[in-house]
Write a structure and sequence with these properties.
The chain is mostly helical. It has a single domain (about 15-145), classed as Winged helix-like DNA-binding domain superfamily/Winged helix DNA-binding domain (Arc Repressor Mutant, subunit A, Orthogonal Bundle), CATH 1.10.10.10. It contains six helices and three strands; from the N terminus they run ααβααββαα. The chain has a three-stranded antiparallel β-sheet with strand order 1-3-2. α2 packs across α4 and α2 (about 40-50) crosses α5 (about 105-125). The radius of gyration is 19 Å and the shape is globular. The two termini are about 35 Å apart.
Length: about 150
């Protein structure tokens, strides 16, 4: 009879696997953005800024991404320098400008999204929707319990 595992050991195994998945996602984002002139981190911020129909502040974007405002600001500034994002006046707050994805930024997002969809389809080919949904709900529940 195998030895009983301590309480939480399975969750600890899952957490280690999540770290491995995260490393794999970072590697994949580097590969998908290769030759585009942006990094995976820049792609993430550009995607977050491009969601929705209205421009948003960097602070709002950082909260949505669960990242520090300063790190998102640095990335957004690089995107603006490269013509992928532009800053607009914010009628609600003179200090917090709105960031809007430019046409060039939207074209790049579309290109990257097409590449990502193929990559995702290849990864998901051996997974059922039910298994993916179950895994999503479990990881989401754990994240919510962590605070």
């Amino acid at each position: 009879m195998p030895a009983k595992r301590p309480n939480g050991a399975n969750l600890n195994d899952l957490m280690r696997e999540c770290f491995r998945v995260n490393r794999g996602l970072m590697d994949a984002s580097r590969q998908l953005t290769e030759g585009t002139g942006i990094t995976g981190a820049q792609w993430g911020v550009l995607t977050a800024l491009g969601q929705g129909d209205e421009p948003r502040t960097v602070a709002e974007t950082a909260r949505q991404m669960a990242l520090a405002r300063q790190s998102v600001q640095r990335v957004a500034d690089v995107l603006a320098e490269n013509g992928l994002v532009e800053y607009l006046p914010n009628p609600d707050d003179k200090r917090a400008k709105l960031a809007e994805v430019t046409r060039a930024g939207r074209r790049l997002l579309l290109k990257l999204e097409k590449q990502q969809q193929k990559w995702i389809a290849d990864i998901a080919a051996d997974c059922s929707d039910a298994d993916i949904n179950t895994a999503f709900r479990l990881v989401q529940k754990i994240r919510q319990q962590m605070g």
